[in-house]
Amino acid sequence: MTNKTSQERSGFLFNVDILIEGSTNGQALQALLALLNDSEKVVDLRINSGIELGQVIESALASMKTNYQEKSRATLSAAKGFQAKAAAAQIASQPAPKAAPKPSSYLTPDDIRESISKNRLVRLIVNKPGGNRLSIPCRILNFDESAQMLSVYHVDEKQVYSFSLNEIDELTGQ
User: Fewer CB within 10 Å, N- or C-terminus of the chain?
Assistant: First the structure.
């Protein structure tokens, strides 16, 4: 059995939040890494959150996906044009049914903007790759209609997430 002497070194793990000033997230991250890497006492590090790099790439990919979906829909609608004309003729001969009211669980872009202005709590059902569905209680921070992106603050995890509108299955007001 060996006894530890006071000169032996041990490692200790700390979990901290650090606020670094910088004009961009990348510059603040660079300053943090320089600060931590310059210290001889820091053996290893892992950054769990706060990195906001790659958002331009993500929005470009989302835009490409949206454009592809729109082209696919246009091609599909052109291919089904004959079927649509036949269906329209059949529907015209029948009495028009009453328009179904929108479910109360659906939020329009105007509702989204109102939720942002009133800082209202909403529940977001997100379908992630691999079939994972997430139910997120959140507040909507930003809605970019041109990029089809929604930025939300997860009230339980205290994290900010951005989702493409095609990832969102359901958005309900609470």
Answer: N
